[in-house]
Amino acid sequence: MIQEQDLSEEKACYENQSRNTYENVLYMKPLIEKYGVKDEPGQLKHWLLITSASHMYRSVKIFQKQGLSLLPVPVDYQTANSLQWTEFDLVDGAQNWHDVIHEAVALFAYWITGKI
Predict the structure, then answer these.
(1) Residue 72 belongs to what domain range?
(2) Which region, left, alpha or beta, applies to residue 114 given φ > 0 means left and ψ of -120 to 50 means alpha?
(3) Which of its termini does the chain have fewer beta carbons within 10 Å around, N or C?
(4) Which residues contact 106 (CB under 8 A, 6 or more apart)?
(5) Which pLDDT band, with edges at 50, 70 and 90, does 5 fall under?
(6) What is the mean pLDDT of the chain?
(7) Contacts of 70 (CB under 8 A, 6+ apart)
(8) Tally of domains in the chain
(9) Burial tier of 91 (Cβ tally within 10 Å: 0-12, 13-18, 19+)
(10) Pick from 98, 99, 33, 95: which is nearest to 69 by CA?
(11) pLDDT tens digits along 41-84
């Protein structure tokens, strides 16, 4: 994906230790602060946050709470090109509700615990 966007692979930074979005931020913050090039004293250049579109809002809010500025690049959209008004698939419908409820509960939990 990095090459598809004409970005340099050697400048990419991957984090693979976290179990959730909050841990992802905690593990990435030191890397961003260490390797972040500064535009002005105290100001880091923007980093790209590439994550699933379904939880981009929560991810951005968590990074912002940690004082990090990011440019969101949502991927993995779960929407179709057109709506099928005459068809309904019970399995797909249940999965869609699962995804919505998962994100709503996560947002609430992160909000109640002060992570966003």
Answers:
(1) 3-112
(2) left
(3) N
(4) 21, 55, 58
(5) low
(6) 78
(7) 46, 47, 48, 49, 60, 63, 64
(8) 1
(9) exposed
(10) 33
(11) 666 667 788 888 888 888 889 888 888 878 888 887 666 666 66
Other CB atoms within 10 A of residue 103 CB: 15
Give the mean pLDDT of 16-35. 84
Residues in the chain: 116
Instruction: State the DSSP H helix or E strand holding residue 62, giving kind and residue range, or none if neither.
Output: helix 56-65
A 10 A CB-CB count for 4 gives: 6
For residue 91, what pLDDT band results from cuts at 50, 70 and 90?
A: confident
Do residues 55 and 37 touch, judged by C-beta distance below 8 A? Answer: no
The CA distances from residue 81 to 16, 64, 71, 77, 78, in Å, are 32, 32, 25, 11, 10
Q: Is the pLDDT of residue 39 over 80?
A: no
